[in-house]
Amino acid sequence: MAKPKIASDWMAGCAGCHMSLLDMDERILAVAELADLRATPITDLKEPDASGVDVGVLEGGINNTANEEVAHKMRQRSKILVALGDCAVFGGVPALRNFCGVQAALQRAYLEAESNDAEVKIPDDPELATMTRVRALQEVVPVDVYVPGCPPDADVIFHVLSELAQGRKPEVKGELLHWH
Amino acid sequence: MVTLTIDGITVEVPEGTTVLRAAEKAGVKIPTLCDHPHLTPFGGCRLCIVEVQGFRVPIASCTLPASQGMVVQTNTDKLRASRKFILSMLFSERNHFCPFCQLSGGDCELQNAAYAEGMTHWLIQPNWNTYAVDTSHPYFVLDHNRCIMCQRCVRACGEITGNFTLSVAERGSASILVADCNTPLGKSTCVSCGNCVQACPTGALIDRQSAYHGLEKRLERKQTVCVGCSVGCGIDALVADNQLIRLEGNWNAPVNKGAMCKTGRFETPAENRARLRAPLLRKDGKLEPVTWEEALDAVAAHLKPLAGQPGSGVAALVSSRLPAESLSLFKQLFANGLSSDMVTSTEEGWPTRLPAELAEQTGAAFEANLDAVRSADCVMVIGADLVEHHQVAGFFVKRALPKGVRLIVVDPQENGMDDLAAHTLKAPAGSDVEVLRAMQAAALKAGLAKNAGTIADVEATLAAAPAATGLALEAIAGAAQMLAAAVNPVILYGKNLTAPAGETQAAALKELVALARTVGAGVLSVKGKANSLAVSQYGLDRPFELNGHQAAYVALGDDEPSKRLVKRLEKAPFRVVQASHVSPLTEAADVVLPVTNWAEQEGHYLNLEGRLQAARQLLQAPQNVWANDQVFTALAGRLGVALQSNWKEQLFQRVSPVAMIEN
């Protein structure tokens, strides 16, 4: 049997979940033994194979149209979709802006922040994606495996990836279950 | 008794026991959020739902009385799915994003409940409504966004504190916690006891001082006794890295059962007086840091020639916040060793002398205890304001009022409990003797006396009462009849009993005890500081007077000296102050000896009901700061005085006004 293919990407997050993935140290070699690591933000390949992967992993929530595209593409090309980290599972820290709205958040960040210089403006390049309410991954596409944590510990990620690489659906429970 | 089966386990419980408590007895854990063992069942969160054979739908076990033959299931697939849904609803209602909450990671009961159900995600996303954060209170913050409407705070406020400040306004999803009629907490009737904060299961009520100072698993919980006043509440001190992080009421403590007041919970950890860190000796008019050796030698050199000189020797004062062990050594050193004729406490016996003398005269304890207060059906408070001092004793009274307990307040001044009382008798200061005699006469006249009275001429006493007290006869009679008609009346009294000119307060206490005996009431004095009663038992309770004394020694500990004391000590030619903090007293002293504070020492305290309790050492003292006992022992060595460690024996030598209770 061919090694299962795993791809990952990040959206509205801080990259911390991928840092936590790397934090599993030499165990990443064990994962590479069992699985074929394809497109990830930390490998050369940047998009999941058009032919599809077995496992797609997404970090971050969905806060604009570009993220929506990433989420849909990964869903379409993955047999199993994993929501990695609190932002993908719940919306996380970026979702705080939902409590005040996009405009107020932009205003505060780009016009009123203490660190701004004199020439301040809200970015309005037409090529920029359109901002939306911050959503958890499950609000945009169906999710198969939820791995909460801010970030999930390296042990949790190793457990999830090694289970998936061996063709099992991982259970995140007990000591492995943390939301913060 | 009823017998029921819970998850196949048969358990027998008294009638009226809830299924939740029966399950606890059977060793079956049912998840809960709004339940609290010390609060009335409420049935708000629905997490404790169970399936009962014959019932159409699952039902909350916390409000369901167990009945004979009931067959209960607590952990079916249906219940687990329902619990996940209930938790999802709670999470979706407000802002329950865990990563930015200080309780996340073990201290939040909502998060722990979700973990226990194995929830990896929410079934429903939040609705993004925002709620106010009330930061108006000096000691805690109310973040409505984290509130789950379990109303544990509301019940703690009413059932533990008896203050009824917190309640819920609006209905359904618009429900919101409010103080008074939607007043900011800081401007409300809140008495800052913090019992609501201790009861809160989430991060909705946040203690400002300990917030973000670490999760409970990183703190050490040490059981001890509050030394804020003579009530002697059992408390848990949460400590990390030799820092006091937070104080909590000990739910199992016999005195307070979890309750605390502002003084203990918030003011004690907020201590910010400057600390004394080295012995100081006055040289050329200026206090200079010196070694302990030099400081103690200087004290011994001054005190030794004064030993055994009545009227011109050393006058010695000790704080009634020190443990019994220290009080005993202090007494042995100054009263026995140096034969000083002025050895007393900084309270000078004001809160305890009256009951102590009465007990000595009669040779027996005459006071009731706090259990009597808690089970009373009528309470009379005289000479004390339990809203200002001994607040937890006040909570015992306040929280009983909605259950029909009647309150009578006798106080010439404005009293914090005036508005709660059925009768307030405001006779001018100095007329307590007349008020108490008139009350006894009124009880006798109404035929409600349970024992023989001491009033020879009832009619004449009553006739004279309005003129003597300025009160209408009906007011006196109303209060007297209420007290006398009660089954278990209790009179709580304080040091502010007043007597007419020419008579002493003892006359007022005599009348108070006579009234109590006539109407069959228990009496209990609230006393003063943490070890007031111990100070009294050691006889350190006489009025302080400097009368030609050549030196004054004040073992102040961490107490705050009164302005009056500082003023009176100005006359002493040589002053030694043994204290934890810088104060006007230490600044004027000739020798300053830095000692441990309440948290850095261990020892015993005798509370207002005669309960002997051990306080633990919580923190290590700063370097070069000595324990009080160490200082007394070192001085005794230099002065050639032998000290004994029989503090306990000495404590029980004098007849006590209240029967002793040993934990």
Describe this structure as you would to a colleague.
The complex is a heterodimer of chains A (180) and B (663). By secondary structure, chain A is an alpha/beta fold. Chain A has six helices and seven strands. Chain A is 31% helix and 18% strand. By secondary structure, chain B is of the alpha/beta class. Chain B folds into four domains: 2-75, Ubiquitin-like (UB roll), CATH 3.10.20; 124-267, 2-Layer Sandwich (Alpha-Beta Plaits); 280-350 and 539-651, Rossmann fold (3-Layer(aba) Sandwich), CATH 3.40.50.740; 353-525, 3-Layer(aba) Sandwich (Dimethylsulfoxide Reductase, domain 2), CATH 3.40.228.10. Chain B has a seven-stranded mixed β-sheet with strand order 15-14-25-24-23-16-17. Chain B has a five-stranded mixed β-sheet with strand order 2-1-5-3-4, with helices on one face. In chain B, a hairpin with a 6-residue loop joins strand 3 and strand 4. Chains A and B meet through loops of A and helix 3 of B.
Write the layout of secondary structure elements.
The complex is a heterodimer of chains A (180) and B (663).
Chain A: E1 5-10, H1 16-22, H2 27-34, E2 36-37, E3 53-59, E4 62-64, H3 65-77, E5 78-84, H4 86-89, H5 102-112, E6 131-135, E7 145-147, H6 154-165
Helix pairs in contact in A: 2-6
Chain B: E1 2-6, E2 9-13, H1 19-26, E3 49-52, E4 59-60, E5 71-73, H2 77-93, H3 109-116, E6 133-134, E7 140-143, H4 152-161, E8 166-169, E9 176-179, H5 195-199, E10 205-207, E11 220-225, E12 234-240, E13 243-249, H6 262-267, E14 280-283, E15 286-289, H7 292-303, E16 314-318, H8 324-337, E17 342-345, H9 353-362, H10 370-374, E18 378-382, H11 391-398, E19 406-410, E20 423-425, H12 432-445, H13 458-469, H14 473-485, E21 489-493, H15 505-519, E22 522-525, H16 532-537, E23 551-557, H17 563-569, E24 575-579, H18 584-587, E25 591-594, E26 603-606, E27 611-615, H19 628-639, H20 647-651, E28 661-662
Parallel strand pairs in B: 1-5, 16-17, 16-23, 18-19, 18-21, 19-20, 21-22, 23-24, 24-25, 27-28
Antiparallel strand pairs in B: 1-2, 3-4, 3-5, 6-7, 7-10, 8-9, 11-12, 12-13, 14-15, 14-25, 26-27
